[in-house]
From TrEMBL:
UniProt xrefs under InterPro entries: ATPase_AAA-3, CbbQ/NirQ/NorQ/GpvN, ChlI/MoxR_AAA_lid, P-loop_NTPase
Protein name: MoxR-like ATPase
One MF term in the entry's GO annotations: ATP binding
Superkingdom assignment: Bacteria
Coiled-coil region: none
Domain ATPase AAA-3 per the UniProt entry, residue ranges: 63-196
Family to which the UniProt record says this protein belongs: Belongs to the MoxR family.
Domain ChlI/MoxR AAA lid: 271-335
Keywords carried by this UniProt record: ATP-binding, Nucleotide-binding
PANTHER family referenced in this protein's UniProt entry, alphabetically: MAGNESIUM-CHELATASE SUBUNIT CHLD (PTHR42759:SF1), MOXR FAMILY PROTEIN (PTHR42759)
């Protein structure tokens, strides 16, 4: 499928002020993103919210974790995103016996032509633009933590040497619910590295019917690239240059800070929440709101964006107390209360 390339002059784009955003660039990028959204929707049927939030996470330059029971097209969504966005992708199936070196790579001792031995680094699957960490919570916490530096700094350190990762670099992890057997909770430090936690629910009857007809025939339609890696980098730069109004900034601060039990004026938060979101949540929410505005063709985010994205941004950055869980309190109810704090 043909696509229009966007300017990717990193130095020039970085120096632009928010008011220098060209309307024609915004329109061209919005059209590309809408085409990408439509193509993804043909492969992942009945999950419009999930597709929207996934594109928002990538436009914001972040990582995401998809949570849902098996069979809800989590793996298919990640593979389709990689193809449509034109990114080099690799897949790692996380299992209990997976080791950090299986993800990052390792050094091997080799004999040279002159008979001397030396170490050579063999890059692991993390050296790609889109890493699919399939069923990430089936690996041990030690292996899960191997992704921390890669996700935060875009590089890995092996045997005292630092190796940069390709740009853009995104980790798209899939996860089964923790109540299922054979899973390990992700460490809080790693969870905080994910910009968003996106939940995938069962499709409705009409969508499931459409899915049956589209996926059980002799052949399925091939998915073609719509964007390139350069287009995605240009879009991420545009997101960071997008202006944000004072009312939106205050709404973000209210939502995040009111989620902290020690600072919250809300009785339910003080009673039911064990720990709340840190400053990285505010940063993530700001970027995600800008990305949602860009995806919808708007030049600036609104308070509606804050309300819509509060749950996926905060869901993995908060925890209920034991007493609240015993009383049957659900985190989604708490998140609904917080989203209303946006005004």
């Amino acid at each position: 499928m043909p696509h229009s390339s966007l300017s990717t002059d990193g130095d020039r784009n970085t120096d632009l002020a928010p008011e220098d955003l060209a309307p024609e660039d915004l329109e061209r990028l919005t059209a590309l993103l809408q085409t990408a959204h439509d193509v993804i929707s043909t492969a992942v049927i009945g999950q419009q919210r999930v597709i929207d939030e996934s594109l928002i996470a990538l436009l914001a330059g972040g990582h995401m974790v998809l949570v849902g029971v098996p069979g809800l097209a989590k793996t298919r969504l990640v593979h389709t995103l990689g193809t449509v966005l034109g990114l080099t992708d690799k897949r790692v199936q996380f299992t209990p016996d997976l080791m950090p070196a299986d993800i990052l790579g390792s050094e091997v001792l080799e004999d040279g032509p002159d008979g001397r031995r030396s170490f050579r680094f063999l890059p692991g699957p993390v050296f790609c633009q889109l890493l699919m960490a399939d069923e990430i919570n089936r690996a041990s916490p030690r292996t899960q933590s191997a992704l921390l530096q890669a996700m935060q700094e875009g590089m890995v350190s092996i045997a005292g040497q630092t190796y940069p990762l390709p740009r853009p670099f995104h980790v798209l992890a899939t996860q089964n619910p923790l109540e299922q057997e054979g899973t390990y909770p992700l460490p809080e430090a790693q969870l905080d590295r994910f910009l968003m936690q996106i939940t995938i629910d069962y499709p409705d009857r009409a969508a499931e019917r459409q899915m049956l007809l589209a996926t059980t025939g002799i052949a399925e339609a091939a998915i073609q690239p719509v964007l390139t890696a350069a287009d995605l980098l240009a879009a991420q730069q545009m997101v960071r240059r997008m202006p944000v109004g004072e009312s939106v900034i205050e709404a973000i601060l209210s939502v995040v800070r009111h989620g902290r039990p020690e600072d919250s004026p809300l009785p339910d938060i003080r009673t039911h929440v064990a720990w709340g979101p840190g400053p990285r949540a505010s940063q993530a929410l700001m970027l995600a709101c800008r990305a949602r505005a860009l995806l919808q063709g708007r030049p600036a985010p609104s308070i509606d964006d804050v309300r819509a994205l509060a749950a996926p941004i905060l869901r993995h950055r908060m925890a209920l107390t034991f007493a609240a869980r015993a009383e049957g309190v659900h985190l989604d109810d708490v998140l609904t209360t917080l989203a209303a704090e946006a005004g």
